[in-house]
Design a protein that fits this description.
The structure is a single chain. By secondary structure, this protein is an all-beta fold. Helices cover about 0% and strands about 60% of the residues. It is built from no helices and 12 strands. The strands form 2 sheets. Strands 2, 4, 5, 6, 10, 11 and 12 form a 7-stranded mixed sheet that branches. Strands 1, 3, 7, 8 and 9 form a 5-stranded antiparallel sheet that branches.
């Protein structure tokens, strides 16, 4: 199982970016898909997560600005980031609970991270 994240870049404050994360491999089912971020010198933190059935959890610091669309048929989760602030600058990682063929239960996987820089 692999998670491939893309879409990061440099954007001015107030701008928007859309991150994508595709899960590939021998997949039976994916449950939770989400995004975390890690700023320099800080711990990794949850940004948003979405279950297969559509239950969403947002961190307080992104409510009203970010959304987390998901396409179950494409095994893809997105992070639509609007009204970006300099404090959103971080490496963003996608994460998923995947039930892979040959396994008896779900395992947790991480993507490689995509860097987002918001200039003031």
């Amino acid at each position: 199982v692999q998670l491939q994240a893309s879409g990061g870049g440099l954007v001015q404050a107030g701008g928007s970016l859309r991150l994508s994360c595709v899960v590939s491999g021998s997949i039976v089912r994916i449950n939770v898909m989400g995004w975390y971020r890690q700023a320099p010198g800080k711990q990794r933190e949850l940004v948003a997560a979405r279950t297969r059935s559509g239950i969403i959890n947002y961190a307080d610091f992104v409510k009203g600005r970010f959304t987390i669309p998901r396409d179950n048929a494409l095994n893809t989760v997105y992070l639509q980031m609007n009204s970006l602030k300099p404090e959103d600058t971080a490496v963003y990682y996608c994460n998923a609970d995947v039930w892979a063929y040959g396994r008896s239960n779900y395992s947790n996987y991480w993507g490689q991270g995509t860097e987002v820089t918001v200039s003031s």
